[in-house]
Amino acid sequence: MPTPTTLPLSGVRIIEFASFVAGPSAGKALAQMGAEVIRVDPMGGNADVKRWPLSDRTGESLYWNSLNRGKRSVMLDVRSDVGRDLLLGLATAPGTDAGIVIDNAVGRPWFSYEALAARREDVIAVRVQGRADGRPAVDYTVNGAAGVADMTGPAYTDAPTNHVLPGWDFLCGQQVATAVLAALRRRDKTGHGANVEIALADTATAAVADLGWFTEAAERGDRARHGNHLYGSFGVDFATADGDRVMIVALTPRQWASIGIATGTTEVFAALAASLEADFTTDEGRYAHRGVIEAVLTPWFAQHSTVDVHTALSDAGVLWGPYRSASVVAADFEADAGIDPVLVGVDQPGIGDVISSSSPMRFDGEYSGSVPAVALGSDTAVVLGDVLGLDTAELDRLRAAGVIV
Amino acid sequence: MPTPTTLPLSGVRIIEFASFVAGPSAGKALAQMGAEVIRVDPMGGNADVKRWPLSDRTGESLYWNSLNRGKRSVMLDVRSDVGRDLLLGLATAPGTDAGIVIDNAVGRPWFSYEALAARREDVIAVRVQGRADGRPAVDYTVNGAAGVADMTGPAYTDAPTNHVLPGWDFLCGQQVATAVLAALRRRDKTGHGANVEIALADTATAAVADLGWFTEAAERGDRARHGNHLYGSFGVDFATADGDRVMIVALTPRQWASIGIATGTTEVFAALAASLEADFTTDEGRYAHRGVIEAVLTPWFAQHSTVDVHTALSDAGVLWGPYRSASVVAADFEADAGIDPVLVGVDQPGIGDVISSSSPMRFDGEYSGSVPAVALGSDTAVVLGDVLGLDTAELDRLRAAGVIV
């Protein structure tokens, strides 16, 4: 990583008391920009400490170790009053760059915004909820309700298709990171703290609304399922002679023309457009006739090797991308780290070599790099000393009382 | 919306010279937190000005009007030197809260970071790219390459399933918003500007790496497609007697127990666990036996009405959510705005009533609310006057030269 003093959030301290994806991904994003992120877990770890995938090598959670890189780790008995007091103390410690909390601890009155603000009036607390009214929800229960699962998947079935990637969690987590920084700026300027809540259900529903899709459905009902076709223009996947697949997209007239050049179909489409009285240079024309466009292009892909397809598409300036399974991404990384420059190899204690990643944000041309996750709770004593000023005797008493290990 | 002075980014001015989803969604998120976001478009609008869906009522883009709410709109002939000079002037105008640019104008040397920094040394420029090496890519061409399309969709086919929602665009956009605020904080503290780049391909690849999925694939190859089942625990959808679907999830022992209570299957699963020598209280046990768990639960859902299913699941504390198509979300909004509190009705000039949304971030308990998008270019003269101090005579000369309308 670059020198810490050059990182944009150097000096900022954030207490993360959260689990699963949204809150921890926010903490990770902030840590990658230089913040000191202290993740606090209950004794034995939070509910995500053994979340899949687990390493075949050692049984450790690849998931937990990925989402918690670059953070300090504190473990406290938060069922005890003393443990809760320590957590509240960490969360509300003095300093212009401290007093910032990320959590998803819905339904814990002792860790409410009011409880935090009673200790530090200008605390910044950003909380991930399931639903805005406090009801629980996770990525997988809000996705279907936002209208997207019904649109996704093969056109030949009516069954909804769930997403595999917890995309709402990631988006919500990034919203948490944004909210932290916006609130911090307001506090820097005005001295006011902030009580921010973000419900995962709202994250999903607002994003779909941002595309105009609910208004569209209110006007004309649900659109027909369109399978792998891009909606409202032309884009779909094709199989090469080797059985690999590529996605090609034409959002502009120039991108459309390049597909004809790459595949030698310019004249075919000119004749077809005349015969259909269609205009393939428009989004409407391409989308309306996506089926025949796909059919005309399919043989060219089927007759050419993957390498030849890639070369021809790139040479003609087609907007395209390959499909890769996760194991192909991993193999590509082993073969040539330049293929996915955001990926970074890390030697993770407890696991071994893992495929980690930088932040996708490159500040001044530099990737953040990556670091291992520390073992659960391994910074407890040091952090309680650094932040709360506890001395050896006090730490020993906490250990004896079972509040820390 | 709350009084502007209470909004966290009040006073911050951002120039957005971008199109499609990532850049404009970043500008929208910042505007919802109180920033003055000035979107600059070329004459006639950018390539996304007529992006689908279009309104059946008026032909206007529901998409464009959704992503550009709450921004000011400037239209300039950026093919002319004078127009480019005006855009560079807006982007690098003085002020501690100005000199911030979001763009995706890859391959325009006249709008490079260097060109901006030559006018204002501490400019903050955050640029969305396709790939980090400058090659073009869009959401739909990076998704397949990140490994996720191969995992998504029905287990009975090997064909990859594209996502419909441009999720990487949204995540990248939120990363842009985060980067803007992190860079602004660094500038406030140190006086340094920032040249930030974020490649959509990196956004996707880094997120999948954050879950540990590439390391998993490196260890044991690609996981089997698991259809609508949640990976590594229990969660899947069921059809009710009315043909509606619900998603239920059990990530914890308590959530698992509640499913048995709601559906009257506690004893069945106890006997089944004994017979299979399985432990359904663990993630491993539930995931390994997800097929039989699904089969045991299916009849209960099929025998109960949607209303009864919802009631029983909620009463027992099951983690669940309904599936809704976009038209059902729209109908729910018409019937009861409290069902999706983030949604907001807006009277959009040029279209009529639309279903818009607040920011999912609630600062101090308040939703941001929403406002209409202004017509393309309608703030041009006012902004050039406000920011660059152009007077009526100068504006008239620009109009006569065709640089503005």
Automatic annotation (TrEMBL), chains A, B:
Coiled coil stretches, renumbered: none
Domain of life: Bacteria
Molecular function in Gene Ontology: catalytic activity
SUPFAM superfamilies named among the record's database cross-references: CoA-transferase family III (CaiB/BaiF)
InterPro entries the record matches: CoA-transferase_III, CoA-Trfase_fam_III, CoA-Trfase_III_dom3_sf, CoA-Trfase_III_dom_1_sf
One Pfam family matching this protein: CoA_transf_3
Protein name: CaiB/BaiF family protein
